[in-house]
Amino acid sequence: MSAADVETKNQASWQDDAARDLVRNAGDRLAMFVRGEGSSLWDADGRRYLDFLAGIAVTSLGHAHPVFVEAVATQAATLAHVSNYFATPPQLALAATLKRLSGAGERGRVYFGNSGAEANEAAFKLARLHGGAERPRILALKNGFHGRTMGTLALTGKDYLQAPFLPMVPGVEFLDSTVEALEEALDDRVAALFVEPIKGEAGVVPLPDGYLAAARELTARHGALLIIDEIQTGAGRTGEWFGFQHAGIVPDAITLAKGIGGGFPIGALVTYGAAGDLFYPGTHGSTFGGNALATATSLAVLGEIERAGLVENARVRGEQLRAAIDAIGSTLVEGCRGQGLLVGVVLTAPVAGAVIAAAQEHGLIVNAANESTIRIAPALTIGDVEIDEFADLFARALATVQDALLLDDTTSEASA
Asked: For every residue of 336-358, which 3-state class applies, written as one string?
């Protein structure tokens, strides 16, 4: 059997296994990765890829970072889980760290879950506790994304995601992302407003300038909570520890996950001021939330981001990355959106699927946020070498798609 035959057989084997054994909620898997280091991934055939997605803004330190590895190994050999009837040192240390980094202050409180969806479920319940029967309305933004559980799906402003699961949890209303729409919708029957500083799943779309400042003033005026979903924008990704900090405001709560664990599952709700007094015993809980293994790992990841100056690196490298994309000069690229190392490359044609397929063929991992936007969210540790390699591979991918489009046009003209 030739080497090519062996590769084809291996590929068919894992794809067959995935098709047979995995629920098809995610569709066909694009590759079988077996190892990672830094911003590199290797597939089952030993081929290396440059990872500029980082598990969708998750592996903040890259793959197999020594700090991450040591934290997991050391804590696993010490204490992994005791339930939330008890406290552990890493749980308390991480809560204090998140309060400090987020500016939650002395009155701030932290609830731990295992994912972004769980963090937003907790925030949804926080809003209900605040609103009670007198404030039944919850506001969120069209095309926002807050999760796929039944509660967080109700907060997600995408009709096509909700449609198979109707009826939704009641009380949520969706607004255009304008201050005018918010002013019109807010009244004293609104419990909370949920927003993302940058709508990642919508195509890396920032809120309009001044929106968060206006939202803070308006929600405070009407006694509603301002809850900011920092699951994709937190942990330094935008060039500040959290996206809302660019606006210089103080929210009532933020939700966190993804990058704070560096690859280990963890989510958190951080409350500010009086919002921290809303939960009382029995109102929420999680068996695994805040376990010693997850919190120790997150504490180490955040510590390394701070020690290594990776928040500033995200800002500097984000600017460098945008300049590198502009320098490619592809006619397929209209421009870039986002902040720091959360970048949306806006395409001039709805060919994002073709671009990510071509990128993978050339050894680059990126993501199609929608049919006209490529999402880029690499590890916060990237430097000149990774950006230079990205620019080369991304240029090749764009050229591959551009050549295919020109060929299709030529073929169509010849047929006509």
From this structure: EEEECCEEEEEECCCCHHHHHHH
